Sequence to fold (248 residues):
Amino acid sequence: MRRLIRATVAVVFALAAAMGLGTPSAFAIQGGDQLPNQRGTGVAQLWFDGWGGDQFICTASVVGPTKVLTAAHCIDKTVLPQDYYVLVGSTHRGEGTRIRVITWGTRFDLAVGTLKSTVVNLNDVRHVQIRATQLSPKVGEYMYAYGFGRTCRDCGPADYLKRARLRLLDMDRDAAGGPGYRMRGVLAFLWPKDSGGPLFREEDILTQYGVTSERRSNSTIPEFYFARFDPNAMNWLNGMNVPVKTGW
Fold:
């Protein structure tokens, strides 16, 4: 299956939730490093409560005063945007400040959510930057993907935020055919519930360079694909009022 989460009709989605099957899975990290339980992070948690039960869907990042960024395939366009909310400011899954999403905008496998209220006055939220002038990572460079979720094939979601170290193999496409990176984990793998999480350079954990998109197993070693911010993506993000030119 090319995408980790595909939009499904609302009836099927509701029946799955009612039967306890949950939503289709996105990635999460196996191996890697567990971050300490603390408040003060720019990584967010995307949740869904459209049918009465709260379900953790994907990872996201806080990229503006009222903006979060995640993977477009995490979003079911057959349901109301307001059925989604984010938890921000905590590395503990299920904790943090809850803010409702009011609209979504998507481009390839990127999705920007507009929040009902600002995060500017929340001391626990770190500001993740996407800069129009930032230089793209180079092939061979090591980077970190951050995410919540299960830590093995049969595990439940992790209690705390984790990160995986990966090596950039080359430029490729994301799950929706947009510009992307192809990467391979270093003693770490991505499993469901990590889609939408941010990609950072090793030396710069507050500037985001991509969004976790999908896992492909075309070889014995899984490879991971991330949506990349090319100039067209930067222009789109700017049009979505993500402060890529001014910072925040």
Remarks:
- The mean pLDDT is 83.
- Residues 10-18 form the longest helix (9 residues).
- The CA atoms of residues 62 and 68 lie 5 Å apart.
- The radius of gyration is 16 Å.
